Amino acid sequence: MANMIMASSKALITASSFPTASTTKPRLQLSQLSHPKIKISEHQHRQIVSLSSSLKSTAAIAAAFFAVAPPSFAAEIEKAALFDFNLTLPAIMAEFLLLMFALDKIYFTPLGKFMDERDAAIKEKLNSVKDTSGEVKQLEEQAAAIMKAARAEISAALNQMKKETTFEVEQKLAEGRKKVEAELAEALANLEKQKEETIKSLDSQIAALSDEIVKKVLPI
Amino acid sequence: MNVLPCSINTLKGLYDISGVEVGQHFYWQIGGFQVHAQVLITSWVVIAILLGSATIAVRNPQTIPTAGQNFFEYVLEFIRDLSKTQIGEEYGPWVPFIGTMFLFIFVSNWSGALLPWKIIELPHGELAAPTNDINTTVALALPTSVAYFYAGLSKKGLGYFAKYIQPTPILLPINILEDFTKPLSLSFRLFGNILADELVVVVLVSLVPSVVPIPVMFLGLFTSGIQALIFATLAAAYIGESMEGHH
């Protein structure tokens, strides 16, 4: 911006005293600087003449100063090209498209795929963790069923064994009882016999005894 | 009268120090055409930065990312989120376009502000952000226009042109005008912001060097980042608007 201001002012001064034949660029053609065209009174005319003469000297000094500078100064002053459309536009467009494809192949697609796969793997792991808790419940139920079946088996076997042993026990008891009864009967029979014998012996003894008693009692 | 030559000397001295070179370009001739070489050079540097850093950071991706990979993943997520918000569910194919737009403009703007371009002296003109040239910004805005046309036409076919008489046919001239103002505003917004920021910083540096321009430089970093975001968001918004479902 400052350059443009400087350029315009320089063009002003050089145009009035340093016409350049080398450049074809348009130059500011103000030349009223040294020749103000105003209708004025004598006094003011004199003032203005003195003013214009001082201005002329200023211009002369400035022109002289810049005349000393090499002509390249004048050639450097160009119009500020802000809206300068040229081949740069399609060049940048082509560069952008190439960059887009290159970046897609190097960065967006590979990293994107990697990130998506990682996300999917993590989601799967989370889901699988939730599923095993259901499996665990199933296994627990199976275990409970097995335990119940085993217990039923055991109790059935136990009952069976109980029945058999009681049966045996009763059998043995019955046998023992029979034996005991037999012996009892024998012993009773023995006793009876002994009683009989004793009674018999007693009978004979009683007879003898009674004879004696009679003998003793009855006087001779 | 001795005052005048003195002041002219100081004027010339000031002019030499405050070398504000606005609108001065470094021209190359290619075929019958001219190019602004300073824009091409800086754009090559920006492209090299983008491709180089992406290549280095993204090779051997780890499940638990390294710092560089993490940063690039963050950027990609940011771009995806931006595209998804503006375009909707079918945002996938547009991520490279919006992403490249955002990254190119962002890195261009920040390279113009942060990299010491003045070290490299050009014969004419100077190196600066490539986005301070109207050619660059228009070159970015025109593909955006083409993109949203392509999006609308590919999704709706010729029914896309029904949107010109939505919601009422009275708005037809305005809707047609929009097709011209959209790329115009995109390009000029970016161009004006970046060029003006550069100018302000350069003028301040030439007038009051040392510490005073620094807050303006920070402001410039902030606004240039925002401008990149705005450009990309608007591009995505136009695409999304073209692809909008039937009401």
Automatic annotation (TrEMBL), chain A:
Q: Name one Pfam family in it.
A: ATP-synt_B
Q: What is its main location?
A: membrane
The UniProt GO MF terms for this protein read: proton transmembrane transporter activity
Where does this protein reside within or beyond the cell?
Answer: Membrane
Membrane topology, as annotated, equals:
Single-pass membrane protein
One biological process GO term for this chain? proton motive force-driven ATP synthesis
Keyword Transmembrane helix (UniProt): yes
Source domain of life = Eukaryota
**An annotated GO cellular component:** proton-transporting ATP synthase complex
List each coiled-coil range.
Answer: 122-149, 177-212
Keywords of the record, alphabetical order, are:
CF(0), Coiled coil, Hydrogen ion transport, Ion transport, Membrane, Transmembrane, Transmembrane helix, Transport
Q: Into which family does the record put it?
A: Belongs to the ATPase B chain family.
Query: What does this chain do?
Result: F(1)F(0) ATP synthase produces ATP from ADP in the presence of a proton or sodium gradient. F-type ATPases consist of two structural domains, F(1) containing the extramembraneous catalytic core and F(0) containing the membrane proton channel, linked together by a central stalk and a peripheral stalk. During catalysis, ATP synthesis in the catalytic domain of F(1) is coupled via a rotary mechanism of the central stalk subunits to proton translocation.
Q: What is this protein called?
A: ATP synthase subunit b', chloroplastic
Species name? Nelumbo nucifera
Top-level taxonomy: Eukaryota, Viridiplantae, Streptophyta, Embryophyta, Tracheophyta
UniProtKB/TrEMBL annotation, chain B:
- The answer to whether the entry has keyword Acyltransferase is no
Keywords (alphabetical) are:
ATP synthesis, CF(0), Chloroplast, Hydrogen ion transport, Ion transport, Membrane, Plastid, Thylakoid, Transmembrane, Transmembrane helix, Transport
Principal location class: membrane
Q: Which GO terms describe its molecular function?
A: proton-transporting ATP synthase activity, rotational mechanism
* Compartments where located: Membrane; Plastid, Chloroplast thylakoid membrane
Tree of life domain: Eukaryota
Kindly list the GO CC terms recorded for this protein: chloroplast thylakoid membrane; plasma membrane; proton-transporting ATP synthase complex
Q: Which SUPFAM superfamilies match?
A: F1F0 ATP synthase subunit A
Q: Which Gene3D superfamilies does the UniProt entry name for this protein?
A: ATP synthase, F0 complex, subunit A
Annotated membrane topology is: Multi-pass membrane protein
Q: Which residues cross the membrane?
A: 35-58, 94-114, 134-153, 190-212, 218-239
Q: What does the subunit section of this Swiss-Prot or TrEMBL entry state?
A: F-type ATPases have 2 components, CF(1) - the catalytic core - and CF(0) - the membrane proton channel. CF(1) has five subunits: alpha(3), beta(3), gamma(1), delta(1), epsilon(1). CF(0) has four main subunits: a, b, b' and c.
Q: Which family does this protein fall into? A: Belongs to the ATPase A chain family.
Q: Which PANTHER family match?
A: ATP SYNTHASE SUBUNIT A, CHLOROPLASTIC
The UniProt function text for this chain reads:
Key component of the proton channel; it plays a direct role in the translocation of protons across the membrane.
**Name the UniProt record assigns to this protein:** ATP synthase subunit a, chloroplastic
Tell me which species this is from: Nelumbo nucifera
